[in-house]
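Sanity check

After download, print the first record. It should look like this:
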Amino acid sequence: MNISVIIPLKDEAESLPELCSWIKKVMDSNGFLFEVILIDDGSRDRSWDVITTIHKDDHRFHGIKFKRNYGKSAALNVAFQQATGEVVITMDADLQDSPDEIPALYHKVLDEGYDLVSGWKKKRYDNVLTKNIPSKLFNAVTRRMSGIQLNDFNCGLKAYRNEVIKHVEVYGEMHRYIPVLAKWAGYDRIGEKEVEHRARKYGISKFGWERFVNGFLDLTTIMFIGRFGKKPMQFFGLLGTLSFLIGFAFIAYLVTSKLIDFNFAITTRPAFYISLTIMIIGTQLFLAGFIGELIARNSNDRNTYNIEERV
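Expected structure tokens:
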């Protein structure tokens, strides 16, 4: 199998026939052995009926139907487990991603040795205030925090070497950060390709402003787990120790001042209570790190590592 195309969707009955026909045309003209996995994420329209009809006409098109809406990350995670192509392409179902980009992405992964190639919609046809500007801010923050120099993390059109998707787990809103997850898993050959962005032809966008808030929180989670997931004490313990020592230093200063001048009032000074609060916070942070270590050491995957090769 050359290519697995994964398409998560919700309420895209109008666009599916045209999209699947377009994909089939591109694949057959390039002589690819391929499969297309369509994941219906709790659609309320006729999307599943359309998928079953497409499957009957061509068994290279497969369908997975969720009982309810779980989100794009869940859809991708399930499809990643099933995909068998040596290169896996993800794309949206709204016809804003062009299937004509698939051959170039495929060859970029195989011929240029990339683990992951992300699309870059340099010219966009979305609303400037609600989509373009927030997207630029989101990408700038993600570049800064992750160190991965991509212009468009949120582009749904991406290509992966098959082994990459088998070693990343996406949930919540983490589908935007698959390049970051891949980097933490050891797949740091990440490239980018400018791709065509098309104006939406059918339906409306399924994402709102909340995706940027949720996305930032998930990015924070990914960065923390990537650095300290197996060693939480190094994060919480360090912060806790520093906090406790700062508070203790202030208390020591106040006690010393009292020994020098017995008229020096300790308990009437705000610094006394601030110092005690800082020491308590430091102790709590240290205990959080200790509990985190206990959880990590009893986790089933505490010693699970991605081994590249054996001889």
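If your output differs, re-run the checksum step. Summary of this record's structure: The longest strand covers residues 3-9.
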